[in-house]
Amino acid sequence: MSDSFETVVNDRVPRVIALFEVKGEINLIARATRNMVLVRDTADVKKEAARIDVARKKIDERLQKLGAQIKSDQDKTALTQVTEAHNKYLGVQAKLVELADGGQTFEAKAMLMDEVRPVQNAYFGVIDAMIKLQGDQLDGSVKDTHSVVTSTRLLMGLTIVLSLVAAALLALWTMRSITGPLKQAVAVSQAVAAGDLSVQFEAQGHSETAQLLSALKAMQDSLAKVVANVRRGSEGVAASSGEIAQGNNDLSARTEQQASALEQTAASMEELSSAVKQNADGARQANQLAMTASTVAAKGGDVVGQVAQTMKGINESSRKISDIIQRDRRHRLSDQYPGAQCGGGSRPCG
Predict the structure, then answer these.
(1) Which of 70, 95, 155, 245 lies most in the core, judged by the most C-beta atoms within 10 Å?
(2) Considering 114, 149, 184, which residue would you say is the last residue of a domain?
(3) Rounded to an integer, what distance in angstroms lies between the CA atom of residue 137 and that of residue 39?
(4) Cα separation of 138 and 144, whole Å?
């Protein structure tokens, strides 16, 4: 559109304007030439001649400007025709000015009607032809501009439609790229909340959702390590608890054995106490016998011998009783404590 408008504004229209200006200057020259033939005052003739010179210079400037602007072969051909007609017109017009300036009015009038007018009409003809050519080109440029405008409208409409479609697809892709990882993050969070740390997923990209998945991945790995450490600790505690239970069982068994041994010791002590009581009874009986023997010895000397014999018997009986008690005690201690020493000595019981 910019190129089309630039062609119309800066190329086609200025050419048409320049050609119309050339045509206007030719009309001015024609009028001035006619005035030179009609007026009789020399000053007026020279004044019209000066106007003709100014008009010729303007025409030359316009034609040079057109020559610099024209690029196509068709325009160059038309400009060549205008230049040739211009030079031919200037030739006959210069002769007419010389006749009018020399006072040859009759000859100047004849030349104006017979030679200058046909050349002038031909000059106007080629200029009008070039103006028409430029007008046709201007119309073509305008049509091209309208075509470009129409195409631009269609292109803009199509661009808008494609932009809307692209925006919709981009919005859909954006929603999926956001909601997809979010759904995955929700699923992973629910699985972790349910105690399932075996869910496998990958976090790719640098978006916020990717960073969220990366954080969930790191949390899952950390929880898995914590659970593994807790499991190992629980197994260690279970093993230690089993060892403690086994030690408690062993301690309980040894305690029961010690209780049984204490019961046996108590029974032995009861038996020993009974034997001591029996020994005390024997000692009392011996004491009574000794008192009786003393009484008998006091009654008579004859009885002394008998008493001595009786005491001897009593002594032997006491020793036998003591041996029996000690032997019974050794047997009991030997049964309860095998390998123990009796009486604090080095002799084993039994």
Answers:
(1) 70
(2) 149
(3) 43
(4) 10
